[in-house]
Amino acid sequence: MTPSGNGFRALVVCLAPVVSLAFGCDGGGHMPDAQTQPAAYSAELSVRFEVSADRPATVSVLGFRAAAAGPETDVLGLVDPLAAAAPDQGCVLRDVDLANRALVTRGSSVDLEELGGVGVGLGSSGAPQTVIRTFPRVYPDVAGVVGGVVGEAAPQPITTLPEHVSLFSPDSELPVGELAVPALPKLLAINGSAPAAGMRVDTSGGLTLSLAAAGGSFVELRPFGATVVVSCAVPANASTEAFVTVPRALLAHLRPGDANVANGVAVSVEIARRIHARQPLVTAGARVSVEVRSTLAVELRP
Question: Which of 24, 62, 133, 186 could form a disulfide with 212 if both were Cys (CB 3.0 to 4.6 A apart)?
Answer without folding.
Answer: 186
